[in-house]
Amino acid sequence: MPNAFQEVRFPTDISYGSGGGPEFSTEVVELASGHEQRNVNWTYSRERWNVAYGVKDETLLDILIAFFYARQGRAIGFRFKNHADFEGTAVELGAGDGSTVDFQLIKVYDSGGFSYTRKISKPVSGTVTIYIDSVEETSLSIDYTTGVVTFDVAPTSGEVVTASFEFDIPVRFDTDYLPQNLGDYQARSVDVQIVELML
């Protein structure tokens, strides 16, 4: 089952209390002069979370164990809701050219005149609204497994396509081992990492 993925969401009662966030990979080389050279290894970030922080009682621990078994540790990917960052509002996807019918959902993070564009591949079913020049458009289809919006008729040249939506993150467990200590779950002693998948 190479690159197996199941369109199932990690239990939100657990993800709500999880700790983590975006991670980049940068190699910093310190030179003899005291200057440094920074080499970017990843073009895009990956989110990493410790979901054990969200296990607050024995019932949630049982749910986590069952979910881990069903995903076979690191083998199978799944959806995860980051409760601090799960929606996009009036996000510009691009402009029409009269022939392009496919538009990828994205989210743009702006700061200090610079921006970072994130591909949204796992929108939440029923939450996506698409607009052409601020007018809602319904003659289209949405692939909720890839985040691609396909119009029945291509937007004409210059028409601006925007979207509002909620989204999940494609992730997998970052371990094949789930230690269980019923006496320690409230102390958050279990370390259960999940990591974002680049799809």
Can you tell me about this structure?
With 199 residues, this protein is mainly beta. The chain folds into 2 domains: 5-81 and 171-196, no CATH class; 87-166, no CATH class. The chain is built from 2 helices and 17 strands. It has helices spanning 12-15, 58-71, and strands at 5-9, 19-23, 26-30, 36-40, 46-50, 77-80, 87-95, 102-104, 106-111, 114-119, 129-132, 135-137, 140-143, 148-151, 160-166, 169-173, 193-196. The strands form 5 sheets. It has a 6-stranded mixed beta sheet, with no helix packed on it. Strands 7-15-11-12 form a 4-stranded antiparallel beta sheet, with no helix packed on it. A 3-stranded antiparallel beta sheet has the order 8-14-13, with no helix packed on it. A hairpin with a 5-residue loop joins strand 3 (26-30) and strand 4 (36-40). The longest helix has 14 residues, at 58-71. The chain is globular and about 60 Å long.
Give the SSE layout.
Blueprint: E1 5-9, H1 12-15, E2 19-23, E3 26-30, E4 36-40, E5 46-50, H2 58-71, E6 77-80, E7 87-95, E8 102-104, E9 106-111, E10 114-119, E11 129-132, E12 135-137, E13 140-143, E14 148-151, E15 160-166, E16 169-173, E17 193-196
Parallel strand pairs: 1-6
Antiparallel strand pairs: 2-5, 3-4, 5-17, 6-16, 7-15, 8-14, 9-10, 11-12, 11-15, 13-14, 16-17
